[in-house]
Amino acid sequence: xxxxxxxxxxxxxxxxxxxxxxxxxxxxxxxxxxxxxxxxxxxxxxxxxxxxxxxxxxxxxxxxxxxxxxxxxxxxxxxxxxxxxxxxxxxxxxxxxxxxxxxxxxxxxxxxxxxxxxxxxxxxxxxxxxxxxxxxxxxxxxxxxxxxxxxxxxxxxxxxxxxxxxxxxxxxxxxxxxxxxxxxxxxxxxxxxxxxxxxxxxxxxxxxxxxxxxxxxxxxxxxxxxxxxxxxxxxxxxxxxxxxxxxxxxxxxxxxxxxxxxxxxxxxxxxxxxxxxxxxxxxxxxxxxxxxxxxxxxxxxxxxxxxxxxxxxxxxxxxxxxxxxxxxxxxxxxxxxxxxxxxxxxxxxxxxxxxxxxxxxxxxxxxxxxxxxxxxxxxxxxxxxxxxxxxxxxxxxxxxxxxxxxxxxxxxxxxxxxxxxxxxxxxxxxxxxxxxxxxxxxxxxxxxxxxxxxxxxxxxxxxxxx
Length: 466
Description:
nine-stranded mixed beta sheet, six-stranded mixed beta sheet, 23% strand
């Protein structure tokens, strides 16, 4: 973050300087008092279990001298006991932090790109950062800091040297992405797809589309929306009248968009494909598992074109791509091979992961599939659909984990070997008798199912499979 004075912070946040020197400065933001130090702005966010206001003194003892607080008691305590502390008082520290991020970013001369979608947004964000960092000083959303707290914290990672900010935006209900877009005011936005994640909350895919399109709320005639035109819901934008410009990407894109062709899947070695746009073409090789990454790359490369980065330059950059977190990474150990895709799950992402398993070089193909959460009243049917898909792809052994995943077993019934377990502990107790040497294993489930524990067990804690 660019260095800000306490007075500037009070103005940006909509608060007031309650006490202390107005020329105290901060060059980074902390919400954890243990991480606060000299040069920090400590923001006392109120969580489910703890009130951050109560930890202002702890932050002070770690060297912090600038604070944003919403508790009058805490502010008065700091004023009475630590005269060199500057306290900015706000009614709501979360809103104050969001206002600070919005107004701070207004004063930063950077290119602002937003990324959202039901699946693939983190991978696409990583691709964008990989490409843009070859020409620009680039900041991207770390890990999954894509909500009402994480996005402002991402903003504070920018500084005087930053030229491009790539901001991932997630949501679980209507209005959330609009809030994030209001903070960022992106000039360019990317939407990867519209699936059925958060269907339980949003009730329909039409509402999911509406929620994702909030990313374009503040865009104008100079702005661009790049979207996956092969997605059935996003294709509805094709004929829509919009104030912003549209760029279609996918196999069905026309010559004015970004066209995917000649896609070849080499399993864990990666994928190869051609992208064409505006009379230019380039061959891409991405060292990642999964055909879906061709669509993510088409969106990233299409966005890059608007900033003077050619398709050939994007192709060269993506040869060195690495992806955040547990998203279809192939891990080996104990004489087995695991596709670790345990970050989250929806029907579309599970099917994509099953495709990756089918392309894996291995002995038996084993799918360990846990519950997909937040799918609404038709959850059972969505799980059955995944089971049927896995069976039709020729997966040798399907193991389901969790109460909803039993419907996956129902969908796969009669098409191969299928076993179900009520909970992960039950599966792990039986795992050493099931898994065999040279198995290729997909482990996938919603984040709340904690299937990363199964990955670690099979790779490190279990038997050395023979």
